[in-house]
Write a structure and sequence with these properties.
The chain is α+β, with helices and mostly antiparallel strands. It has helices at residues 48-65, 108-116, 120-127, 136-146, 150-155, 164-173, 180-183, 198-204, 226-229, 241-248, 306-316, 325-329, 369-395, 412-422, 434-446, 453-457, 472-489; strands spanning 4-10, 14-20, 26-33, 45-46, 73-80, 86-89, 99-100, 159-162, 177-179, 189-190, 195-196, 213-215, 218-223, 234-240, 257-261, 265-272, 283-290, 293-302, 339-341, 359-361, 402-405, 426-429, 462-466. 35% of the residues lie in helices and 23% in strands. It has a 7-stranded mixed β-sheet. A 6-stranded mixed β-sheet has the order 3-2-1-5-14-13, sandwiched between helices. A hairpin with a 3-residue loop joins strand 1 (4-10) and strand 2. It binds adenosine-5'-diphosphate and SN-glycerol-3-phosphate. The site of adenosine-5'-diphosphate has 17 residues, from helix 11 and helix 12. This is Glycerol kinase. It is an enzyme of class 2 (transferase).
Length: 496
């Protein structure tokens, strides 16, 4: 009797494995951090073998700790850090280079050149993405260019390209696949036709022999090799981690929104059965494909979310641990006029300014570390409010609440301020491991462990609801001040 679904949540800094039962409750969890490599300024790499071995170890560990035999596991689902680019030898399964991580900026100039050549509008129309080094296309082109012999070998069909889902699926089952949601983050995939885009493959110089087969987010990909867990388990669910979290938050209807407050913040809104062409610099992306039906999402991300609080801890040393920020922020009655724009790595959506830099404005002799902590917490909410504003303008559909998850969503002060700024309730669910839960749901649906989206949507439960309390004119005034602070941070590095 199968009693669990196993979710593999392969994140940027750690690999996690979580077992879920029929009620969608976690029955065990194992997690392992793995090394980050920064070989040059702006470069971020992972060893694909670290990704695989840490993921395999935690999967085995969670089964062992929970005393669950692999034969009791109905299915495996993968949720993964997206865009990160892996290239490996098809015959041996050995990577030919380090993985280029989504945060890596080495191809920024290649993107500038494509922009100057007028390619951005076409790329956006076909892929729904902003022309940026964030996505896989220029990373793969870089590998084909710089790894000795790679292009010739790729053209002969000897190499496989994939995002992290693809890499894990290959190691687990031997098949070279990716799901539609991950494919939509490569900048090589046409989100309208749901297939690799010949025009973009030509533009980036990518031979189609390296590409994975595109599968749905919820379908049987294959069985795991028997030796991995002692018993084969069907791999039946794959989605990019932010799409998986949106699914795990049960955002199944147009206008439903979730925001994940992790290192960065990733806000996604269900956009319906057709992609929405953003006019507000958001990304239009595939959510998931299930039983032939594709749902689309609008996405906005900010680079510094919870990481702003880490900076207070590690950079300024004014708190010992992240959770201390709440007490320090509440040690003052308000922000005292201080605004922080944490553009340490430029600004993401909706500004997309790689030259913006961190700014602290409005300080007086009365400013204390309490005000700075308050401004840091508020900055997370201001940045997220800008994303929701852009979404409301793009989607032209009412937003009635926002569902929150991620480490910084534990901060009640942040959640309350966020609700105040948005003017809609912010709701925190009971199960906060929404990324893994979404992957489990996608996998479980494919094998009949859960029968329908309605059944899984009914499992979603609120832990706490934060109602907006701020008057409209105060909200408008604060957002206007924030906009002035952002103005001061933009373009800074370009004028150095
Ligand atoms: N109480 C808190 N208030 C604000 N930020 C917090 C709090 N607790 C944790 N964080 C932040 O949340 C982030 C970790 O969240 P997590 O969801 O684990 O992130 P990720 O998956 O991106 O590694 C860290 O950046 C940390 O600073
Ligand atoms: O690994 P995470 O959770 O920070 O997510 C990374 C995103 O998928 C990048 O697009």
């Amino acid at each position: 009797m199968t009693r669990y679904v196993l979710a593999l949540d392969q994140g940027t800094t750690s690999s996690r494995a979580i077992l879920f039962d029929l009620q969608g409750q976690p029955a065990g969890m194992a997690q392992e951090e793995y090394p980050q490599h920064f070989p040059q300024p702006g470069w971020v790499e992972h060893d694909p073998l670290d990704i695989w071995s840490s993921q395999l170890r935690v999967a085995r560990q969670v089964l062992k700790d929970a005393h669950v035999d692999a034969s009791q596991v109905a299915a495996i689902g993968i949720a993964n850090q997206r865009e990160t680019t892996v290239l490996w030898d098809r015959a041996t399964g050995v990577p030919v280079a380090p993985a280029i991580v989504w945060q890596d900026r080495r191809t920024a100039e290649a993107c500038d050149a494509l922009r100057a050549a007028g390619k951005a509008p076409r790329i956006q129309a076909n892929t729904g993405l902003e022309l940026d080094a964030y996505f896989s296309a220029t990373k793969l082109a870089w590998l084909l260019e710089h790894v000795p012999g790679a292009r010739a070998r790729a053209e002969k069909g000897e190499l496989c390209f994939g995002t992290v889902d693809s890499w894990l699926a290959f190691k687990l089952t031997g098949r070279h696949v990716t799901d539609v949601s991950n494919a939509s983050r490569t900048m090589l995939f046409n989100i309208h036709l749901l297939r690799w885009d010949g025009e973009l493959l030509d533009l980036f110089g990518i031979p189609d022999t390296v590409l994975p087969e595109v599968v749905a987010s919820s379908e049987e990909v294959g069985l795991t090799h028997a030796h991995l867990f002692g018993h084969p388990i069907p791999l039946t669910g794959i989605a990019g981690d932010q799409q998986a979290a949106t699914f795990g938050q049960a955002c199944h209807r147009q206008g439903m929104v979730k925001n994940t407050y992790g290192t960065g913040c990733f806000m996604l809104m269900h956009a319906g059965a057709q992609p929405v062409a953003s006019t507000n610099r958001l990304l239009s992306t595939v959510g998931w494909k299930i039983n032939g039906r594709t749902d689309y999402l609008l996405e906005g991300s900010v680079f510094m979310g919870g990481a702003t609080v880490q900076w207070l801890r590690d950079g300024l040393g004014i708190i010992q641990q992240s959770a201390d920020v709440e007490a320090l922020a509440l040690s003052v009655p308000d922000n005292g006029g201080v605004y922080m724009v944490p553009a340490f790595a430029g600004l993401g959506a909706p500004h997309w300014d790689p030259y913006a830099r961190g700014t602290l404005v409005g300080m007086t002799r009365g400013t204390t570390k309490g005000h700075i902590a308050r401004a840091a917490v508020e900055a997370i909410a201001y940045q997220s409010a800008e994303l929701l504003d852009a979404m409301r303008r793009d989607a032209a559909c009412p937003v009635t609440e926002m569902r929150a998850d991620g480490g910084a969503a534990r901060n009640d002060t942040l959640m309350q301020f966020q609700a105040d700024l948005l003017g809609v309730p912010v709701v925190r669910p009971r199960v906060t491991e929404t990324t893994a839960l979404g992957a489990a749901y996608l996998a479980g649906l494919a094998v009949g462990f859960w029968r329908s989206r309605e059944e899984i949507a009914a499992q979603w439960q609120a832990e706490r609801r934060f109602e907006p309390r701020m008057a409209d004119d105060e909200r408008a005034e604060r957002m206007a001040r924030w906009a002035r602070a952002v103005e001061r941070s933009t373009g800074w590095a370009a004028h150095a």
